[in-house]
Automatic annotation (TrEMBL):
This is Sugar ABC transporter permease. Keywords: Cell membrane, Membrane, Transmembrane, Transmembrane helix, Transport. The keyword Nucleotide-binding does not apply. It is a multi-pass membrane protein.
C-alpha cells in the first residue's frame, strides 16, 4: 500500500468520527479550571495543617507546605476536649463494619430479587422501596433511642452500627445493577451445568457486579463517616465519632484555626484513601453502564 493510499484511508469517515470526539482546547481548559476549583479547598486545608496560627493569618495566605505538621497532629491527638484519636478509631470501625454489611447483604438481596423467582418478591422489593421514601432516621430517633437504652448500648459504638447494617438504597441499587450486568442466559447455563445457587452467586454474580459493589461501598462509607446526628445523640462526649470530635474541637478551640484545619484534614484523609482504592472500579462501572446504555 502506498503512502498516498494510507493517507486517504486514514482520512476516511472513521478518522473524521474520531476527530469529532477529540477534546478541543476549550474543553481541556474548562476541565482543568474545574479541577483546580474542586481540589484547591482540599489542598489549602492540608497546607494550613502544616502551618502555625500566625502564618495562617498572613496576607497573602501561604500556598506552600510548612514544617509544623507533626506538631499540629500531636496537639490534635493530645487535646482532651475532643477525644479526636478515639473518634477517628470509632469512625473507622463503624464505617468499615457498616460498609461490609451493607455491600454483602445488598449484593445477596440484589441477586435474589433480580435472578431468583419466588413468591412475594415484588411485594418485598416494593416494601424496601417504601422505606426509602420515609426519613426513618429523623422520624425514628425517639423509639430507636429507647431501644438502645433498653439494650444498654447508649454510649457504645454498637448503637451506631446496628441501625445501619442494612440499607434499602443498597438493595435497590444492586437489584438494578444485577439485572443489567448479568444476563439470565448466563445464570441458566450455570444451572444446567449443575451449579448450586451459592456457586452461581460466587462464580457468576460477584465478578459481574464488582463495579457496582465498589460504588455502593464508597457511598456507604462516606455516608457513615459523615454521620453526625445519631452519634451525637447516642454516644458520650468521651467516646465520640470523628464528626462529633470536630464539633467539640470547634467549640473548645474555635480560634485555633490550625488545629481546626488539622482535624478537618485528618477527617478527610480516610475518604481520599477509600476513593483511591475504589476509584478504578467506580470508573469501570460508570463506563460499563454508559456502553450498555
Amino acid at each position: 500500500m502506498t503512502a498516498i493510499q494510507t493517507r486517504r484511508r486514514s482520512s476516511g469517515p472513521a478518522s473524521s468520527a474520531n476527530r469529532i470526539w477529540d477534546a478541543g482546547p476549550l474543553t481541556k481548559v474548562t476541565l482543568a479550571f474545574a479541577l483546580v476549583l474542586s481540589a484547591f479547598p482540599i489542598y489549602y486545608m492540608f497546607i494550613m495543617a502544616t502551618r502555625t496560627n500566625d502564618e495562617a493569618l498572613d496576607t497573602p495566605p501561604p500556598l506552600l507546605p510548612g514544617g509544623h505538621l507533626g506538631e499540629n497532629v500531636g496537639r490534635l491527638l493530645a487535646t482532651e476536649d475532643a477525644y479526636f484519636a478515639t473518634g477517628l478509631i470509632n469512625s473507622i470501625i463503624i464505617s468499615t463494619t457498616v460498609t461490609l454489611s451493607v455491600v454483602i447483604i445488598s449484593t445477596l438481596a440484589g441477586f435474589a430479587f433480580a435472578k431468583l423467582r419466588f413468591r412475594g418478591s415484588k411485594i418485598l422489593l416494593g416494601s424496601i422501596l417504601l422505606t426509602m421514601m420515609v426519613p426513618l432516621q429523623q422520624m425514628g430517633i425517639v423509639p430507636l433511642y429507647e431501644m438502645m437504652v433498653n439494650l444498654g448500648w447508649t454510649g457504645q459504638i454498637q448503637a451506631v452500627i446496628l441501625p445501619f447494617l442494612v440499607n434499602g438504597f443498597g438493595v435497590f441499587m444492586m437489584t438494578q445493577y444485577t439485572t443489567q450486568a448479568v444476563p439470565d442466559e448466563l445464570v441458566e447455563a450455570a444451572r444446567v451445568d449443575g451449579a448450586s445457587t451459592m456457586r452461581i452467586y460466587v462464580n457468576v454474580i460477584l465478578p459481574a457486579v464488582r463495579p457496582g459493589m465498589a460504588v455502593l461501598a464508597l457511598l456507604t462509607f462516606m455516608q457513615n463517616w459523615n454521620e453526625f446526628l445519631w452519634p451525637s445523640i447516642v454516644l458520650n462526649p468521651d467516646n465520640p465519632v470523628v464528626q462529633t470530635s470536630i464539633a467539640a474541637l470547634n467549640q473548645a478551640h474555635g480560634t485555633d484555626y490550625v488545629m481546626l484545619f488539622t482535624g478537618t484534614a485528618a477527617s478527610v484523609l480516610p475518604l481520599v484513601i477509600v476513593f483511591v482504592m475504589f476509584g478504578r472500579q467506580i470508573v469501570g462501572g460508570l463506563m460499563e453502564g454508559a456502553v450498555k446504555a
